[in-house]
Amino acid sequence: MCSATNDAVRAAPGYPGLERIEARFVGNAYARHRHDTYALGVTLRGVQSFWYRGEVRASLPGQVIILHPDEIHDGGAGTEQGLTYRMLYLDPALVQAGLQNAGLPFVAEPVVDDVALRSALLEAFGDMDEMLEPLVADQVVTELTEGLSRRADAPPKRASLLDLVALARVAELLNHAGLQPIRSDELEAVSGLDRFTLARQFRARFGTSPHRYLTMRRVTQGRRLLAAGQSIANVAAETGFADQSHFHRHFLKAFGMTPGRWQRLVASR
């Protein structure tokens, strides 16, 4: 039988718009949280139990998990034998690009038996120690996008009314904000859109608000620095948070565990 000391997270080298992890847990792994990407996973061993959209769900080995951006969920092992799974976090903008800028497909059923989706995910996880080759990444995104569209409750709506150029400028600013605070009037100036139109269009394009998008960029960078062995206090300062406590709160909301636990799990693999 597994024990809590066997808990570990293994993060693969990053690729633009794609993050990959392999994790093993006993018991509850994540508190309720949400992130601004699609979360697509395959359960390898054990039962994965999680709360999502008002219900407790379960995924068995070989089944695919599909979580929509900004949907609150938790997760953990459903039995005493523990859990091993792999999860890919997919940027919604890549999905829209793959669908020629249609709206984001929503899949209501979070656990599916889908051979094509499972094969695409396992292809993405082929070598967890190496960065994805660009052609492989393009293939994976195409197959995942097609799978999401195929399983969506309704065909994705066209997004022809979105100002994609303006939204790209906003995302570029947020991606490179560094430690600088960003105000709504700056985003209005960059985009040429009023803040309310921008908020609606940004969510349609990226699956979340500009503020949460910026926060996620910072906590995601913090997660990488923690994995590299930096102290939590230094990471908080380097990623633009007011202090360690501020970083702790946002990290927990984004990833469902504390920065300290994440660092220990990555170090223990």
Explain what this protein looks like in three dimensions.
With 269 residues, this protein is of the alpha+beta class. The protein folds into 3 domains: 4-151, Sandwich (Jelly Rolls); 164-207, no CATH class; 212-267, Orthogonal Bundle (Arc Repressor Mutant, subunit A). The chain contains 10 helices and 10 strands. The chain has helices at residues 92-98, 115-124, 134-151, 164-175, 184-191, 195-206, 210-227, 232-238, 244-255, 259-267, and strands at residues 8-11, 18-25, 28-33, 38-46, 48-52, 55-59, 64-67, 73-77, 83-90, 111-112. It has a 6-stranded antiparallel β-sheet with strand order 1-2-9-4-7-10. A 4-stranded antiparallel β-sheet has the order 3-8-5-6. Strand 1 and strand 2 (18-25) form a beta hairpin. Helix 7 packs across helix 9 (244-255). It is globular, with a radius of gyration of 18 Å. The model has no long low-confidence stretch (mean pLDDT 89).
Topology:
Layout: E1 8-11, E2 18-25, E3 28-33, E4 38-46, E5 48-52, E6 55-59, E7 64-67, E8 73-77, E9 83-90, H1 92-98, E10 111-112, H2 115-124, H3 134-151, H4 164-175, H5 184-191, H6 195-206, H7 210-227, H8 232-238, H9 244-255, H10 259-267
Helix pairs in contact: 1-3, 2-3, 4-7, 7-9, 8-9
